[in-house]
Amino acid sequence: MSFDGRLLSNISVLAAIVHSGSFARAAEALNLSPSGVSRAVTRLEGSIGVRLFDRTTRAVTLTDEGRRLYEEISPLLAGIGDAVSLASGASTAVNGRLRVNVDTFFSRRILAPHINDFLQRYPDISLELVVRDQLGDMVSEGFDIAVRFGHPPSSSLVARKLLETRTATVASPEYLRLRGVPQSPDELIHHACIQVRSSMTGQPLEWEYSRNGEIVPAKIASRLMVNESGTLLGACLAGAGIARLKTSGIQDLLADGRLVELLTDWKGESFPLYALYPSRHLPAAKVRAFIDFVMHILKIDEVLAT
Q1: d(CA 254, CA 72)
Q2: Which residues form the HTH lysR-type domain (predicted)?
Q3: Count of domains observed in the chain
Q4: How far apart are CA 220 and CA 199, in angstroms?
Q5: Mean pLDDT value of segment 237-251
Q6: Treating both helix axes as pointing N-terminal to C-terminal, what angle do 5-20 and 34-48 enclose, rounded to 10 degrees?
Q7: Residues 24, 40: one domain?
Q8: Both 168 and 243 in a single domain?
Q9: In terms of domains, do 126 and 62 share one?
Q10: pLDDT digits over 149-205, tens only?
Q11: Angstrom distance (rounded) from CA 111 to CA 294
């Protein structure tokens, strides 16, 4: 016999009659009319081919066939109830596997130093962090949430802006000792600047600055080009040249003097940080907990910046 949703609905009516002891009380519990309950039983009996209840004006009792059927389906109905309870618990209990899509800079410089705090705070979470250049297809690849810099693509994903961070032009003290300190964007042409190739377009990212409403493109000289932020930061720290980096994630390096910010009178580009997840409707507690945790560590980063 093929299964359909109506069969399960009719079986739930049978269970309600057994639990309540009458058609009338089952109708009340299920918010149905007594005739609706009676029709559901008739449909179930017709699909199975046996009578399930002996009905009199005073009582309703299961037939032998009805009793055997109920004994078989009762554990299954309990299992369905347990599954629903487990799923609904995901709205309040922070547990299960959490699969997160992140970009390199956010993962290495902002999230990784604090990730053990998240695991200790939520011991029932199993966390998988996937670092990649581009977002990809979150839903088909099974991601619960993504946290990435840059404007989100037009899609059905829910996008929650967490931060707007500026870029800083920086260099190591060793580089500045050997090559001097540029005083304006025009002077960058005389320095070794580390270029970054866009993962989206494949083209080098242009440098531009603004001050008092004036936007100034900067011509730069470069012998080194990279395509990801970890290499960019490492090369800059090693004295290979001047780089532009997001200030969120390098505050500790600026504070301890391993990097020096340049051209502070000029404003560089800014980048938003977004949390992306598939549905606004009842997001799981583990997703909400991760977003709250990211907001917490971003506040720590803001404190370092002051």
Answers
A1: 68
A2: 13-63
A3: 2
A4: 20
A5: 94
A6: 120
A7: yes
A8: yes
A9: no
A10: 888 877 778 889 999 999 999 999 999 999 999 999 999 999 999 999 876 677 888
A11: 8
Determine the residue type at 141.
E
* Cα–Cα distance measured from residue 41 to residue 6, given in angstroms and rounded to the nearest whole number: 11
Domain-ending residue, one of 58, 86, 114: 86
Strands (E), the chain: 53-55, 60-62, 96-102, 125-131, 145-149, 158-171, 192-196, 207-211, 214-218, 221-226, 243-246, 260-262, 270-277
Sequence-distant (6+) residues with CB within 8 A of 95 are: 122, 124, 125, 286
State the angle between helix axes of 5-20 and 23-30 in degrees (0 to 180), rounded to the nearest 10: 120
* DSSP annotation of 222: E
Q: Which residue, of 61, 86, 111, is where some domain finishes? A: 86
Structure tokens at 272: 């938003």
| Cβ-based burial of 151 (10 A; exposed 0-12, middle 13-18, buried ≥19) | exposed
In the block, tokens 């269970």 appear at 15
Residue 195 contacts residue 226 (beta carbons within 8 Å): yes
**Measured distance CA(134)–CA(280) in Å, rounded:** 22
Question: pLDDT (tens digit, 9 = 90+) per residue, 88-101?
Answer: 555 567 888 899 99
Burial (CB count <10 Å: 0-12, 13-18, 19+), residue 199: middle
Q: Which of 125, 164, 165 is nearest to 145 (CA)?
A: 125
- Domain of 169 in residue numbering reads as 93-305
Tell whether 99 and 68 lie within a shared domain. Answer: no
Report how far residue 185's alpha carbon sits from residue 267's, in angstroms, rounded to the nearest whole number. 11
> pLDDT tier at 22 (50, 70, 90 boundaries)?
confident
